[in-house]
Amino acid sequence: MIAKLEPYIPIHARLPLNQLLNNYQFTLKIVGGRKTKRGDFRATAPLPTITINNNLSKEQFLITLVHEIAHLETYIKTPKARPHGTEWKQNFKLLMLPFLIPTIFDEHLLKLLAKHFINPKATTDTDTKLSAYLQKQNKTTDNHNCFIFDLELGTLFKLQNRIFKILNKRRTRYECLELKTNKKYLIRGNASVTIIDSLKDSYDN
Fold first, then answer.
1. Which among 1, 38, 98, 175 is least surrounded, fewest beta carbons within 10 Å?
2. Which of 84, 114, 81 is nearest to 96 (CA)?
3. Do 176 and 167 form a contact (C-beta atoms < 8 A)?
4. Which tens digit of pLDDT belongs to each residue from 2-32?
């Protein structure tokens, strides 16, 4: 399995990841990018299944894979545990420890990860600084040229083919107006978006 993963992971993660994978039996599927999730775990028969998106940076792919293996570990040991409850958090932290080294993650990312793993969440997207740094490393996001928290109030931007205007900042989220429906939404500051110069330009594209 490790040979299949080599194009997707940091080179120095190969050995500890191979050691981790040898502890489990599951089916791994690398799939096209999905908007709603980067990976998932399913307790399928005859073997559990883990899927990971193929459009992630190597660092994010590794984190996502270990995240899902932590679900597998939790399912094996405590099958009735909540999906992202105490048991999963503890398993995720323990399984990530061998990878938290400077040959796999750069110094700045290690600091962000150390803080994140004090109390890991269901997704890194809830950690604004960590999510933004991981997305900047992901060169496949070339259709999105910035993050909302980089923009000034009043800026127009496109997100998932919808046009918004930034109205106000509320802690980690921003109040934005969707121009087509005139409805307001709260959007995370680490959402990657495309700035548009004018409404005419946006609809021409």
1. 1
2. 114
3. yes
4. 889 999 999 999 999 999 999 999 999 999 9
- Same domain flag for 73 and 8: yes
Question: CA-to-CA distance for 172 and 168, rounded, in angstroms?
Answer: 11
The domain spanning residue 60 has which CATH number?
3.30.2010
CA distance 92 to 81: 14
Residues 151 and 126 in one domain: no
Q: 59 with 103: CB under 8 angstroms? A: no
pTM: predicted TM-score of the whole model, two decimal places: 0.73
Domain boundary pick from 113, 137, 161? 137
Strand partners, 176: 166, 185
Smallest Cα–Cα separation from 101: which of 8, 16, 21? 16
Task: Note whether 73 and 92 are within 8 A (CB).
Answer: no
- What is the 3-state composition of the chain as percent helix, strand, coil, each rounded to the nearest 5? 40, 20, 35
Distance CA 106, CA 134 (A): 11
Give the residue from 83, 116, 137 where a domain finishes.
137
**What one-letter code names the amino acid at 205?**
N
H or E, element range at 19: helix 14-21
**Which residues share a beta bridge with 187?**
174
Residue ranges making up the domain that contains 71? 2-137
